[in-house]
Amino acid sequence: MHQAVITGTGVYTPEHVITNAELVEAFNAYADLFNTENAEAIAAGEIEAKPHSSVEFILKASGIEQRYVMDKEGVLDPTRMYPRLRQRSDEEPGIMAEIALDACNKALAQAGRKGEDIDLVICAASNMERAYPAVAIEIQKLLGAGGFAFDMNVACSSATFGIQAAADMIRTGSVRRALVVNPEITSGHLEWRDRDCHFIFGDVATATLIERREDAPHGFLIRSTRCATEFSNNIRNNNGFLRRTRPDGVADRRDMQFMQEGRKVFKEVMPMVAQHILGHLADAEVKPEELHRLWLHQANKTMNDFVGKKVLGRDPEPGEQPNILQDYANTSSAGSIIAFSKYSDDFKPGEIGLICSFGAGYSVGSVVLEKI
């Protein structure tokens, strides 16, 4: 049985930034347009007026200050409020494969590897740009990798589930080196016209390179992985080829975008995540006080603070639980990998950390790492 080691990570960050102030200005302009166009129905009590958003509301609700996006103009157009991403020809690389390739090349460079060294690619993300062929196989071709590739979707937990799948295949000897890549263009499935969630997501791509320990002179040993799921409708997106229109033929369905019952999610998911991590640590024979760092899913600062306190039994010290969501916002499965990539260079051999992601499903995945 082989041991699996993370030897490189890469992060692709889009060039466009939307600050909270810019987003609020656009959203409030949209709300004013909507209220003007529907003034009679609003006055008659047939529909509700759209309330304004504010920078203070966003910051208090999430801890987010800005987000990176693939397209800024379309999102900030009050008459549109979603990104303009051009339709590509079948002969061109898909947009997810394109940004994934950037993240993969950075991970490979960090480890001193090349695309042809890879024999497994897993594209693990919350939404795919097409049903088939698999985006992972396109990434495999662009990299010049061998072996095989496949897509995986476990919503915000896709990255940790992908790491477990890749690590298991390395342990059993079926592959030697694997790339788990998370191209998250979350701006495409966010309802930017909904005040309760219009600020949540941002775009990014991350990649994690995993190898056999005998081939890895440095990196993080994957000591243990654990995944769990429990079905819930409280985070959902109904967009798919089986659901194109409503029975009346109208295509603009609210449930075809990201939807969640935020308070229910917090109440139900947070205890689940804390218990999952503590159980995983116990089985891996790691005491909470031995953890040097927690790299958590970057959904909401309050959520991370809750999990950190439950796991450590106290408020985390600065640096023990780094947040990147103030800059990146929620990037679905990529968030915990961004945190790991940016806040792991200071680890000394023998120090232990834990990556954890959680989200729709419900799903939660955790990875115990030890610096070698």
From TrEMBL:
Pfam family, one: ACP_syn_III
SUPFAM superfamilies the record matches: Thiolase-like
Domain Beta-ketoacyl-[acyl-carrier-protein] synthase III C-terminal: 281-370
Domain of life: Bacteria
Domain Beta-ketoacyl-[acyl-carrier-protein] synthase III N-terminal: residue ranges: 150-217
Keyword line: Acyltransferase, Transferase
CDD domains: KAS_III (cd00830)
Protein name according to UniProt: Beta-ketoacyl-ACP synthase III
